[in-house]
Specification:
Blueprint (H helix, E strand, L loop, with lengths): L1 H6 L8 H9 L5 H4 L9 H11 L12 H7 L4 H19 L9 H32 L5 E5 L7 E4 L8 E5 L7 E13 L1 H4 L5 E2 L20 E2 L4 E13 L5 H9 L7 H32 L2 H15 L4 H18 L2 E3 L3 H8 L2 E4 L11 E7 L9 H12 L6 H12 L9 E10 L4 E8 L4 E8 H7 E6 L2 E4 L2 H16 L3 E9 L15 E10 L6 H10 L3 E5 L4 H11 L6 E3 H5 L3 H8 L4 E3 L3 H13 L4 E4 L6 H6 L2 E4 L5 H6 L2 E3 L6 H40 L7 H14 L21 H29 L8 H23 L13 H16 L4 H5 L9 H27 L4
Parallel strand pairs: 9-18, 9-21, 14-17, 18-20, 19-20, 21-22, 22-23
Antiparallel strand pairs: 1-2, 1-3, 3-7, 4-5, 4-6, 4-7, 8-23, 10-17, 11-12, 12-13, 13-16, 14-15, 16-17
Helix pairs in contact: 6-7, 6-11, 7-12, 10-11, 10-25, 11-26, 12-25, 13-25, 14-15, 25-27, 25-28, 26-28, 26-29, 27-28, 27-31, 28-29, 28-31
Length: 884
């Protein structure tokens, strides 16, 4: 009953005590402890436990419905402001107005902006959602189970398993739940998806729970966890945890739900609320000034509403979404799925990339790295390789990863023909006590020999001789020490080492056994490595050149991790292991995470902790991983990146999935992210500074003019044309220098930018007022239409020119030219703005044709505006060392 009580603890952290209790039960009482039998449960017991524990499936994100996703697209600060303004305009301009005075322009303009933004965001996110659906589905499989007292096992869906089921595991099987091994034969299990370690581990019936209580539960010798798979051997095991109560299920629960707020989310919120606060302060002020000076409070209110629309960067949601969508499309061409649009910008803001080792930096496959003679010299004659090949080729047992690596290497060297010169006589199979295996072969000359390969320590125990300097010597303590030193040197380089020995001219015609593995001659060593991906070193170099620091967070052995890091160009001067982290306080760790570049032997939660501490130090952190042990870290990071061969949970947790093994796409993602950020910042700074300048102009004109400087309809039309001129900004190019460093959101810089750059336009707006007032005598209400038309054109053209002035820190049109869509559209809007007062449309909204003598003044004002803006720009860059 203790086991049942532990198993009912749902929603808590993973119950390690339950696992240790399962691991320490004696074999004689293990079935009774789990309330089952060696032939499994009955149908009645199965039904009862299915009701109690539910299905054997882990929690995962559910795809959002289209309606929900569409509604969520409206959740945006500016969308809320615009909808409120649209409602106010609808009430005042339509419902409260007389039939002949109803004005739909502001309602239509604002509603169009809202709808375009929402539809664009929804369509892109819906497409991304559908494209990644296949990646989110958990793979279904079957398990072999003993039930109802039958001697033969039956196949059932793993979702139907319950605690107490007795399962049969064989090579190639996925472990269907957390299980306790009760019978085993050469059971070899890969836990790389859980721990990050590429080497498979032995599992047996050995009761070893107590000695591991201070370590990780995944190291228990007689426990296999859901998500691992059987590499070789077979076993019978009892299920003790299913679904969300498994080790895998606990990790899955930690990654489902509300994600941590990313740097992009925080940045856009800060910018949005800064602009909204500015608008909420200035609009009432405009209302009061116009109400007091003009005496018509209703007209002042209408004008204030129009100013509010003009001040609101209503295109921001659409510009942001268009930029992100463009980035997603570009990445899709590079066979990269962008699941979360905001991740594109976070890619560009990222200044630290934390990455797992196995399967991300490495190929996740064992290869034969080197083969050397027993004295450490190079095996130029490939004698050691030939002996290893015969041992691996002629054995009849299941070939492990290292056997496959040997056979693959020999195939590459086209040496497979050597087997034709030998005949197998016998073999001595591998077992985990001896940790070696032998084959007996005979060549065409009748020479019979035993070839043995295995773990170095066990091999040296059976070797009475060793080949040093081309001669066979008696194995002395000195030679044994040298052999250990050679092996340990390769271990420190992160390689797994096997020794190879042989004994020739032995008697044949009999059965061979373990006793024959004696008086052997040590001839050499084999060293294996999980090599880095071909693109890893180049990708890391490119990231460094673009200002992104790379840190490796791995669950694997420290020596192996450091070796891979050296090969791919990661600094290994400072390292930390999971055991060292356990002994540190959060404060001590926080002080070190910025300096350390290599972390080894980490648990999944330690990876998440490191990322959290880096984020608390104002870093934008990306994480690249592919295993179950990476899922929580992927979700915590600002941008989670998974790779081609990732497990389902890792893909589900990631924002971006690389469908090809080429890691160079990371550089492409960083560049695309910075382009996205740069173009978004262009719009924000253009709009914010322009609106801020216009506010000063409106306040000055409202205080001193006997009429409105511009009618509400003029403000709305001008604002619409200006917004249209910026639609192509997502397709603009950026200066190469801008793309070299990570870019972060900084609302404090935006407020400073508005204060310094915004008022420049007010100077030339006031100059236009003076020209219209004194030169063209527009100094009475009878001439207000001409005044308004003159300011309408100057205001629109100056706002449109600011697109080119702000988009680069260089001199526009000379040192840096915008893309042709931006140039073409801004030119078109300027032409439309000039023609509008001369058209019937202009007449319908109260604009009048301007005298031709106005345009030379306009040219001088605009040229002066551009020159002064460029001068202030250079001073601003020198003073604050930044622009966009």
């Amino acid at each position: 009953m203790i086991w049942r009580k532990h198993n009912r603890r749902e929603g808590a952290a993973f119950n390690t005590e339950k696992v240790f209790l399962a691991a320490t039960q004696p074999l004689k009482t293990v079935y009774a402890y789990f309330q089952t039998s060696c032939r499994g449960l009955t149908d009645e017991e199965i039904k009862e436990r299915q009701k109690e524990y539910g299905q054997n499936e882990i929690v995962h994100e559910q795809a959002q419905k289209a309606v929900v996703m569409f509604c969520k697209a409206f959740i945006n600060p500016f969308i809320g402001v615009l909808m409120a303004l649209a409602i106010v305009s609808l009430v005042i301009d339509v419902w409260m107005a007389a039939p002949e005075e109803r004005e739909w322009t502001s309602v239509v303009v604002i509603s169009t902006m809202v709808l375009l933004s929402v539809v664009l965001r929804f369509s892109q996110e819906w497409k991304s959602s559908r494209a990644s659906d296949a990646l989110k589905k958990m793979v279904k499989n079957t398990a072999s189970v003993y039930r109802n007292g039958r001697e033969e096992s039956e196949e059932v869906n793993i979702t139907e398993l319950v605690p107490g089921d007795v399962v049969y595991l064989a090579a190639g099987d996925m472990v269907p739940a957390d299980v306790r091994v009760v019978e085993s034969k050469d059971l070899f299990v890969s836990q790389s998806a859980l721990t990050g370690e590429s080497d498979a581990v032995e599992k047996s019936t050995v009761i070893s729970g107590n000695k591991h209580r201070s370590g990780s539960v995944v190291e228990l010798d007689n426990i296999c966890f859901m998500g691992s798979n059987v590499v070789s051997g077979s076993a019978i095991a009892v299920v003790f945890a299913t679904g969300k109560n498994t080790y895998l299920g606990t990790i899955a629960k930690s990654i489902v739900g509300v994600r941590a707020q990313t740097a992009f989310d925080k940045g856009i919120s800060n910018v949005s609320f800064l602009l909204i606060r500015f608008m909420l302060v200035m609009v009432p002020f405009v209302f009061l000034v116009n109400g007091v000076t003009k005496g018509d409070w209703f007209e002042a209110f209408i004008f204030a509403i129009s100013v509010a629309v003009g001040l609101t960067p209503e295109m921001l949601p659409m510009i942001v979404t268009a930029n992100l969508s463009k980035g997603a499309v570009v990445m899709a061409r590079k066979k990269t799925i962008v699941k979360n649009l905001n991740a594109i910008q976070n890619f560009g803001a990222m200044n630290i990339l934390c990455t797992d080792k196995t399967g991300t930096l490495t190929r996740d496959q064992i290869v034969l790295e080197k083969y050397i003679n027993s004295d450490g010299s190079s095996d130029d004659r490939k004698r050691v390789l030939r002996h290893a090949f015969f041992n691996s080729y002629f054995q009849t047992g299941l070939k492990n990863l290292m056997d496959r690596a040997i056979l693959s290497h020999v195939k590459e060297l086209q040496m497979e023909y050597l087997k034709d010169n030998y005949m197998k006589i016998d073999e001595i199979p591998f077992d985990f006590t001896r940790r070696r295996m032998s084959v007996v072969v005979e060549d065409r000359l009748g020479k019979c020999q035993i070839i043995t390969k295995g773990a170095v320590e066990e091999m040296l125990d059976i070797c009475a001789f060793a080949e040093f300097d081309g001669e066979v010597h008696r194995m002395t303590d000195e030679l044994r020490a040298k052999a250990y030193a050679i092996s340990e040197r390769m271990n420190r380089e992160g390689m797994r080492v096997l020794a190879v020995a042989q004994k020739s001219w032995i008697e044949k015609g009999r059965e061979f056994g373990v006793d024959d593995e004696a008086e052997m001659v040590l001839i050499g060593y084999l060293a294996f490595l999980d090599p880095p991906k071909p693109s890893a070193a180049s990708a890391i170099k490119q990231l460094h050149e673009h200002g992104v620091e790379v840190k490796v967070l791995s669950g694997d052995n420290e020596a192996v991790v450091k070796t891979i890091c050296r090969q791919v160009g990661v600094d290994t001067t400072r390292t930390l292991t999971g055991q060292e982290i356990e002994r540190m306080t959060d404060g001590e760790l926080k002080g070190m995470v910025g300096e350390v570049t290599v972390f080894a032997k980490l648990t999944p939660m330690q990876k998440t902790l490191i990322i959290t501490l880096l984020q608390e130090q104002d870093n934008t952190v990306g994480f690249l991983g592919d295993g179950i042990n990476d899922a929580s870290a992927l979700r915590q990071s600002d941008v989670g990146i998974s790779v081609d061969t990732a497990v389902d949970i890792a893909k589900e947790s990631a924002d971006i999935i690389l469908l090809e093994k080429d890691l160079m796409v990371l550089e492409d993602g960083v560049i695309e992210g910075r382009k996205t950020f740069g173009n978004i910042m262009k719009y924000i700074k253009m709009t914010a500074s322009s609106n801020f300048g216009n506010m000063f102009s409106v306040l000055g004109a409202s205080a001193f003019l006997p009429f409105l400087p511009m009618l509400p309809i003029h403000l709305l039309v001008q604002n619409l044309l200006y917004d249209v001129s910026q639609i192509t900004i997502p397709f603009d190019r950026l200066d190469a220098e801008y793309l070299q460093k990570p870019r972060r959101w900084d609302a404090s810089d935006l407020s400073r930018f508005m204060i310094y750059i915004g008022p420049i336009s007010s100077i030339f707006d006031i100059a236009t007022y003076l020209v219209m007032w004194y030169v063209f005598k527009c100094n009475s209400p009878e001439h207000q239409a001409l005044f308004q038309s003159g300011w309408f054109i100057e205001g629109l053209l100056s706002q449109t020119l600011i697109v080119h002035m702000i988009r680069t820190r260089k001199i526009p049109f000379i040192q840096s030219t915008a893309s042709w869509p931006v140039v073409g559209l801004t030119l078109l809007i300027m032409v439309v703005g000039i023609i509008l007062p001369f058209s019937n449309v202009g007449a319908a909204i109260g604009l009048v044709p301007l005298p031709w003598s106005y345009f030379p003044w306009l040219v001088v004002i605009l040229l002066s505006y551009c020159v002064l803006t460029q001068v202030i720009k250079q001073w601003y860059i020198k003073r604050f060392t930044r622009w966009l």
